[in-house]
Amino acid sequence: MMFDTIVNQPVITAERVVLRPLRKSDQGRIDHFASDETLARMTVAIPHPLPPGATEAFIARAQSDERPADVWAIDGTPGGSEELIGVISLGHVAEGKSEIGYWVAPPYQNTGIASEAVRSLIAANPLQSHVMFASVFQDNPASARVLTNCGFQYLGDAETFSVARNAPVPTWTYSLKLN
């Protein structure tokens, strides 16, 4: 695995995907996938329906030097897929601690893409984290399997507000200790 820095965020290369910083040209693909109610309901922050300008603002935040998280497009071109097939982020929680979040477009779910993207981000560890956290909604066992298959350990139950559901949703929380 290798990665190069573009701006102040690395590009991470894996077998079937490249994790690269978001570009303005990703807006159409993100709009298309994020407007899917099923996908939005499995995320904390994607509203449904997706309002005009939401994706443009998301990309602008992701490109800002003051961003609270590094955000990458999951680019499927190395594996013969499309340029943007999902999004993965690594949030700055505290010194030595970060939180992974991700979504994969419905046509690419259950293909191992999410696991490959998460494993690649863990291996690159661009924030030099000692511990990574993640949480998933309890009605999304596929995302829980991604985390456990990537070495995350179950920590406990919690609750997080989902914008698309306009309600708090029970979650499972996970952590991964790194060297």
Structure summarized in a few sentences:
The chain has helices spanning 27-34, 37-40, 54-63, 113-124, 141-149, and strands at 2-6, 9-13, 18-21, 69-75, 86-94, 97-104, 131-137, 153-162, 167-177. The protein is an alpha+beta fold and 179 residues long. It has a 9-stranded mixed beta sheet with strand order 1-2-3-4-5-6-7-9-8, covered by helices on one side.
Descriptive account of the structure:
The chain is globular, with a radius of gyration of 15 Å. A nine-stranded mixed sheet has the order 1-2-3-4-5-6-7-9-8, with helices on one face. It has helices at 27-34, 37-40, 54-63, 113-124, 141-149; strands at residues 2-6, 9-13, 18-21, 69-75, 86-94, 97-104, 131-137, 153-162, 167-177. It has five helices and nine strands. It has one domain: Aminopeptidase. Strand 5 and strand 6 form a beta hairpin. By secondary structure, the chain is α+β, with helices and mostly antiparallel strands. The longest helix has 12 residues, at 113-124.
